[in-house]
Write a structure and sequence with these properties.
- The chain is α+β, with helices and mostly antiparallel strands.
- It folds into two domains: 6-153, 2,3-Dihydroxybiphenyl 1,2-Dioxygenase, domain 1 (Roll), CATH 3.10.180.10; 164-360, 2,3-Dihydroxybiphenyl 1,2-Dioxygenase, domain 1, CATH 3.10.180.10.
- Helix content is 23%, strand content 35%.
- It contains nine helices and 17 strands.
- The protein has helices at residues 19-28, 70-78, 92-101, 179-188, 237-245, 260-269, 285-289, 296-302, 346-359, and strands at residues 6-15, 33-38, 47-54, 57-64, 81-89, 106-115, 118-126, 132-137, 150-151, 164-173, 193-198, 209-216, 223-230, 249-257, 305-308, 313-318, 329-336.
- The protein has a nine-stranded mixed beta sheet with strand order 6-7-8-5-1-4-3-2-9.
- Strand 15 (305-308) and strand 16 form a beta hairpin.
- The longest helix is centred in the C-terminal third of the chain and has 14 residues, at 346-359.
- The protein starts with 5 loop residues before the first strand and ends with a helix.
- The structure holds fe (ii) ion.
- Fe (ii) ion binds next to strand 10 and strand 14.
């Protein structure tokens, strides 16, 4: 086998200070439904976790119940953060063996957990920062998220929420000089290829510049852009992230919708805060990106950005950072055949981020 047989994103686990409250935030603001839980009531003495689902997206929110627990330690260092990228594979042990034999550092050796629904197999390796990539094999497991979790009554509720469907891509920020190492990690140990590379000329504003490479698996299902800061006149948004995250980590998670106008309308109504671009962004928009199906006044009202590439166009918008530290945020994206990441919007997006950075005294 030449590379881990990745099927899809399985889940994304966040380590947070107070998972009980975070679960409420993700349900009331973003429309996720709590489908499973583990904690003291279910016999989990060290960690409490809430499984939150919407469309094909599965977030796990975990808090350590003791100071020494790995989740508590992670939160102490990074604040609330996305910590574990779960990938569904055909064979977790094989994925672990392949990647570690090619230089990945093992984190969790192949493990089997069993309950009345069958056998759940997993293993994990280290990626950038303290991020783990967890290989999950569900082929012999017919239960909910995993053994040890109790299903919630809300399983019966409508899970379409705000119309978020899937994880489109997960972006990491790494320290200056580390990008090449992590590009090689994904290429050599995971069998990924580089989809595209942006140098600091392509991505720069008056203040900040960055270099970015997008790594993807052989099917194009899993996309991991990775950024490193480049020298700018002042502190770049990537450096701000690295300072407050205390090292490399996940900068943003892009969530796909089939109807961004409806999704963003709902999210704004429920209180999600987005980055704002100047109204002038929409002047001559169709001259810049060509004909699009969505009404431009609606996009302008909601602050949704548009970009075009060879295959089509995409619509996207970025939330404010989701916690006190200026680290993790979400992107909402609708692809109209485009396969890019909104390169045409980088400049106006970064200028919007820099305005927020200036407000935080970090520019
Ligand atoms: Fe993105």
């Amino acid at each position: 086998m030449s590379s881990p047989s990745i099927q899809r994103f399985d889940h994304l686990e966040f380590y947070v200070g107070n998972a009980k409250q975070a679960a409420r935030f993700y349900s009331s603001r973003f429309g996720f439904v709590n489908t499973a839980y583990r904690g003291l009531e279910t016999g989990s003495r060290e960690v409490a976790s809430y499984v939150m689902e919407q469309g094909n997206i599965r977030f796990i929110l975990s808090s350590g119940l003791k100071a020494g627990h790995v989740v508590s330690q992670g939160v102490m260092r990074h604040g609330d953060h996305a910590a574990v990228i779960g990938l569904e594979v055909l064979d977790a042990a094989a994925a672990y063996d392949i990647t570690t034999s090619r230089g990945a550092i093992g984190a969790i050796e192949p493990t089997e957990a069993e309950d009345s629904y069958g056998v759940f197999r997993y293993a994990a390796i280290h990626a950038y920062g303290d991020i783990l990539i967890k290989f999950v094999d569900r082929s012999d497991y017919a239960g909910g998220f995993a053994p040890g979790f109790a299903l919630c009554e809300s399983m019966q509720f409508n899970r379409s929420g705000a119309g978020l469907k899937a994880i489109d891509h997960i972006v990491g920020n790494v320290e200056l000089g580390q990008l090449e190492q992590w590009v090689q990690f994904f290429a050599k140990t995971m069998g990924f290829e580089m989809l595209v590379h942006f140098d600091d000329q392509a991505i720069s504003t008056e203040y900040s510049a960055l270099t970015s490479s997008v790594m993807q698996d052989s099917t194009g299902t899993i996309k991991f852009p990775i950024n490193e800061p480049a020298n700018g006149k002042r502190k770049s948004q990537i450096e701000e992230f690295l300072e407050f995250n205390q090292g490399a980590g996940i900068q943003h998670i892009a969530l796909a919708t089939d109807d961004i106008i409806e999704t963003v309308s709902q999210l704004q109504k429920s209180g999600v805060e987005f980055l704002q671009v100047p109204a002038t962004y929409y002047d001559n928009l169709e001259q810049r990106v060509g004909k699009i199906d969505e009404p431009i006044d609606e996009l302008a009202r909601l602050g949704i950005l548009v970009d075009r590439d060879r295959e089509g166009y995409l619509l996207q918008i970025f939330t404010q950072t989701l916690q006190d530290r200026p680290t993790l945020f979400f992107e909402i994206i609708q692809r109209r055949k485009a396969r890019g990441f909104g390169e045409g919007n980088f400049k106006s997006l970064f200028e919007a981020i820099e305005r927020e950075q200036a407000l935080r005294g970090n520019l």
